[in-house]
Amino acid sequence: MDDFLTKSKKFFSDVNQLKSYSASFEHLGSQKNSGILDKKTEKMLNNQMEAINNKFRKLSNELKDRLQEATSEISDSQSNENFMYKTKKIHVHSQTKALTSAINEYRDAQYQYKKEEEEKFKLQFFIARPDANEDEISECINEDRGESILASAFALGSNSAKGILDEAKNRKTNIQKIATMIQELIEMLKILNDAIYQQHDVVDNIEQDITTAHENTAAANIDLEAALDYQIRASRLKKILIGIVVTIVVIIVIFVVIKIAFFSDYSPYGKHQYNVIF
Fold it and tell me: Among positive and negative, which fits the CA dihedral 188, 174, 146, 136?
């Protein structure tokens, strides 16, 4: 069990690493869109983003394989009622959801980057071919005929336009890489979503435990309120009794003092004083 918990802790640590890749990718994307970059700087940023893609792809696939292995081990387990079995299922379910969340986050970053690259591609194409229309540009980005459209633009454009279109061609290649990465992420999400669906019994048990916990908490709150009310009443009664006792003691003390002062034989107001006067 200790070995499983150690692996589970490592899994969540690796998921956090995936999230850090998302943050790094978004940061590099914002750098690319912060202004006009020279070819060398843009190429450097592209290489860094490609490196992050490769790291994310490698680690996310490793985590997916680990999940599938853990799921198989649990399925092959002989006992499905003991504490260890249930604990493992809950951990695997949490791991699956955590990995799904990290991949969704990275996919969103890829979508945003793809959108920004497509806008730049359109701008470059319009500069070189002012007479181009939106349909032609969209077809160039999304269809297989894109290469032939670009080749046609090279032929019709001026020498300066050819340089811009050459950059657009490189950007189109980059967009295709992004699209491939997004598709890989979508396929992985399908696998993870299927795994989450198959873990519905874990979700049902967790929800049942939560419902039971809420019911127990509500009952405990009622008992606590009753106990608190009883404690308040008891405290008030205790204070009243103490007040009565203190009052009685004070009355007794006053009575004793008065008796000593006025009725004692040695009191200046007592019997001996009257004998001296008369």
Answer: positive
